[in-house]
Design brief:
This protein is an all-alpha fold. The protein contains six helices and no strands. The protein has one domain: Fumarate reductase/succinate dehydrogenase, transmembrane subunit (3 helical TM bundles of succinate and fumarate reductases, Up-down Bundle), CATH 1.20.1300.10.
């Protein structure tokens, strides 16, 4: 009886499974799926960090102001810019998914993916200019 059950259960070698899945040729839809999941996990992580960074509010105005001064440094501004690209990708890809699912966009999913990347890159650099323009003007003297 046990032999019959073991024959029916499909077994696999884990190393072979990993090798097969890592060598699988991924197209734009696969990469969009992977990046969407990674960006979603990153945003959940950021949400917890954001709540944690607001914790000085319970310690008074001075503690909160001190924490906010730390977050206004160039290092954190660059991190905020990186956060913007994560939010931007996740939102643009979410819109693309809605179009593919509800607006008969499956025929155009590759074009929509490319278009979302182009729009995302343009908006990323535009936001970088907005965020860092005062620093750029200060360095180059205007």
């Amino acid at each position: 009886m046990a032999e019959e059950i073991n024959k029916k259960i499909k077994t696999f070698e884990q190393q072979q499974w990993i090798k097969e899945n890592l060598s699988y040729k991924k197209d734009s839809g696969s990469w969009a799926w992977i990046y969407h999941r990674i960006s979603g996990i990153a945003l959940i992580g950021y949400l917890f960090l954001h709540v944690y960074s607001l914790s000085p509010l319970s310690q008074g105005k001075a503690a909160f102001q001190h924490k906010m001064e730390l977050y206004s440094t160039p290092f954190f501004m660059v991190l905020e810019w990186i956060l913007f690209i994560v939010v931007l990708f996740h939102s643009l890809n979410g819109i693309r998914i809605v179009l593919v699912d509800w607006a008969d966009g499956a025929k155009y999913h590759k074009q929509l993916y490319r278009f979302s990347w182009i729009i995302g890159i343009i908006l990323f650099f535009a936001m970088g200019f907005i965020m860092f323009s005062h620093e750029i003007l200060r360095v180059f003297g205007k």
